[in-house]
Design a protein that fits this description.
Layout (H helix, E strand, L loop, with lengths): L1 H21 L3 E5 L3 H7 L4 E5 H23 L1 H28 L5 H9 L1
Antiparallel strand pairs: 1-2
Helix pairs in contact: 1-3
Length: about 120
């Protein structure tokens, strides 16, 4: 199974390298449209190879998706934490009740009773 994972990573790396080699031309990346940049008297533009724009867009999309899912699953994580706290509280209560049950008994009998 480990070799299948390495094979998939190698294929993915070769695909990324071929995309990078095929898209080495320089492109101008405009941060703002010309009409809007006129309002602020700035023209933010960057010259980058096309493959950096493509791969950067993929990375930005992945990060936005991860953050979106993390925010969406907040309620589920909070509920799981609440249930874990409740379970620990109940376990402590069960241990306390068992200790009360065996109070005043012989220690050996109490241990045997707990084991069963």
């Amino acid at each position: 199974m480990r070799y299948v994972r390495y094979l998939c990573i190698a294929i993915f790396a070769l695909a990324l390298i071929s995309v990078a080699l095929a898209n080495r031309a320089m492109v101008t990346l405009q941060v703002l449209p010309a009409e809007v940049s006129g309002w602020f008297a700035v023209t933010p533009a960057v010259n980058l190879p096309l493959f950096i724009v493509i791969l950067g867009s993929i990375v930005a999309g992945l990060l936005i998706g991860f953050v979106w899912e993390w925010i969406r699953e907040h309620g589920q994580r909070a509920e799981a934490a609440k249930q874990a706290r409740e379970m620990r509280r109940l376990e402590r209560e069960v241990a306390r009740l068992k200790a009360e049950k065996h109070e005043g008994k012989d220690e050996v009998l109490a241990l045997l009773d707990e084991a069963s």
